[in-house]
Amino acid sequence: MILSKTQSEEFIDKSIIDILGKGKVNFRYIFIFILLSVNLFANDNVLLFKPYTASVFEPRIGSVINLTQDNLRLDIGSSFDLFRNKLSNELTYSIGGDFFTYTRLRSETNFKFPVETSDYYFGINSAANFKLFEQDFSSRLRLAHISSHLVDGYSIAGKFLKSPFSYSREFIDLSLALNKQSELLDYRIYTGFIYVYHTLPIDVNTFIPYIGVDFSKNIIKEIAISGGLDLRKGESDIVNIASQLGFNIKLYKEFGIFLGYYKYFGSSVHGMFYKEKDNYDGIGFQIIYF
Q1: Does residue 21 sit in helix, strand or coil?
Q2: Nearest residue to 282 via CA among 60, 39, 74
């Protein structure tokens, strides 16, 4: 059975409530939700500025199974270029939006995954590809909001294991990347910073610099080795280290899937646990666009 776009959107709306609003989740609904998301988002979703590979604050559709603890991360969402204009052979710019969630679920038997916490990210962005000093550069400016929430999967007998609180951030994220392509390796080196101009609670870092690198190497036409490393300032002045390495597998036109290994060390990416540290290995997948 093939659902129409309207039917798919209605199913996704219901699925969001099922996935994020109830304490336990059946994995098959998550899988169906991801497939329908691809059905809606796959058409013409090649972005002028591709999300950074290893950064945890990028839009994704996929999941990471934590091998160190009994939980997993579920990512739902995407970025869109709403407007794009080519001013010259050396300058193209776009304006778009980011809308996604990243959610922590506890792993239990019988494919049940109580939802513990979920973070919501949305904002607008502007990106540009340009030449400078005969080199290919790209840049992106994001104006965005993050809020974080405990969900009833993080409770026992109706009581949360820790007290929830208001967590929200409004910020500016500016980055610059050098893009290099060769027969040996394609890679992107980037740097940038986040400036948080409004936050609850107030005891969080308001200036967050970061650097990173992405790379890929074709093995055959439809399969490439892909990886990335992202370093940025975390809470308590520690350095957050996020990396991933695996395979990009092209399945259909511009659409494919990444399968690989994830490593993270640093402050928890979830606002409800921002003072806590995470150190884990994971395996997972995500939908990608070439």
Answers
A1: helix
A2: 74
CA nearest to 74, candidates 118, 23, 126: 118
Joined together, the tokens standing for residue 94 give 């776009």
Residue 184 in 3-state DSSP? Answer: coil
Mean model confidence pLDDT for the chain = 86
Q: By mean pLDDT, which of 42-51, 106-115, 255-264 is the weakest?
A: 42-51
Specify whether the backbone of 118 is left (phi greater than 0), alpha (psi in -120 to 50) or beta. beta
- Name the pLDDT band for 152 (thresholds 50, 70, 90): confident
Give the separation between CA 144 and CA 31, rounded to whole angstroms: 28
Q: Are 2 and 26 in contact (CB under 8 A)?
A: no
281 burial via Cβ count (<10 Å: 0-12, 13-18, 19+): middle
In 3D space, the residue among 245, 252, 259 whose CA is nearest the CA of residue 289 turns out to be 252
Strand partners, 110: none
Instruction: Please give the Cα distance from 82 to 145 (Å, whole number).
Output: 19
Encode 143-168: b = buried (16+ Cβ within 10 Å), e = exposed: ebebbbbbbebbbeeeeeeeeeeebe
What number of helices (H) and strands (E) belong to the chain?
2, 14
In this prediction, what percent of the chain has a pLDDT beyond 90? 66
CB count in 10 Å sphere of residue 265: 16
Residue 190 one-letter amino acid? Y
CB 227 within 8 A of CB 246: yes
Q: What is the mean pLDDT of residues 240-253?
A: 93
CA–CA gap between residue 183 and residue 159 (Å, rounded):
57
Residue type, 36: L
Question: For the chain, which domains are there?
Answer: 5-289 (2.40.230)
